[in-house]
Amino acid sequence: MEAVIQKRKKPVTAKTVASKSAFYLLLVVLCVLFLFPIFWMVMNSMKPHAQIYADMNTFKTFLPSFHASEWFASYGELFTMFKYFGRSILNSLIYCAVTIAGVLVVNSLAAYALSRFKFPGHKVLVTIIVLLLMIPVETSIVPQVIILRSLGLLKGNMRILGYLIPAIVSPMYIFQFRSFFLGIPKELEEAAYIDGCGRFKTFFRVIVPCSMPVFATVAIFTFMGQWNEYVFANYMFAAKESFKPLQVFLQLVNTHNPQDLSCTLAALTFGTVPIAIVYIFFQRWIIEGVAFSGLK
Asked: Between vectors from CA 223 to CA 221 and to CA 228, what angle results, nearest 5°?
């Protein structure tokens, strides 16, 4: 048996080593190119404003300030200059958490119905969902505002619901969930029905555990989309500063004193680093979910 395994192993040649080395070198170069702006932003957010320009044309631009006491000075200024800056970070986290929970529940149930139930107009509805993927999100802002105004969700604290509800339903996520559910054998559900499980119990005890990659993928994409959302938030919370998410405050920081590059970079770090961290640590789930691998 060992002899057979050894025969199947490809011999290591100079050509193989060279091709793999070139491949990994290319990956390193691409990694450096993509991470360079973030690295530069973080390093310069830890310097005073004048030092950023003084070090711009030297290698020191890639290093933080040599005085440790200045590293987080610009971050502290954000919280002192803007009363609700810390609140905006908390708002963004709350909005993301609520949106993720709503997206996972609503879109997964809708996709499960479309993948398992056959009813009149089933194919037409699936076709409409696919066609909606080609419509830009920006074209739906005005209709959404009109509907929200007619429902009274543009007044006072109700603006929060008006901001969160439109983000919960997504044709993209319904299509993604449905494509994944179609790859799950129906025999698993039939076994659950024999054991006495109903539709909802089968969904949450059989389908959901088998679909963790797509659930994680949708959750990550939802977090990234909601964290970076600006246009709709800027309109909804124009008069409510305490309700604004972080992305809206980034614009306020830049317009307040655009010459203070240190504070601007510190604010951008708050808005960028969480997305990078989430993507780096959960990229495996993204790859598995997008691949629609189903059961392994």
From this structure: 100
SS3 assignment, position 259: coil
Q: Which of 271, 257, 268 is nearest to 82 (CA)?
A: 257
> What is residue 59's three-state secondary structure?
helix
What pTM value is reported for the model?
Answer: 0.79
Q: Distance between CA atoms of 200 and 142, rounded to whole angstroms? A: 36
Tokens, residue 45: 């957010």
Q: Could you give the residue ranges of the DSSP H alpha helices within the chain?
A: 2-8, 14-44, 49-54, 73-81, 85-116, 122-132, 141-150, 159-168, 171-181, 186-194, 199-202, 208-210, 212-228, 231-236, 246-256, 261-281, 283-290
Residue type at 48?
P
Could you tell me if 111 and 178 are in contact, meaning their C-beta atoms sit under 8 angstroms apart? Answer: yes
Residues 6+ apart with CB under 8 A from 67: none
Interval 30-64: pLDDT, tens: 888 887 888 888 888 888 777 777 777 777 777 77
Alpha-carbon dihedral angle through residues 235, 239, 242, 246, given to the nearest 10 degrees: 30
What CA–CA distance (Å, rounded) separates 91 from 271? 13
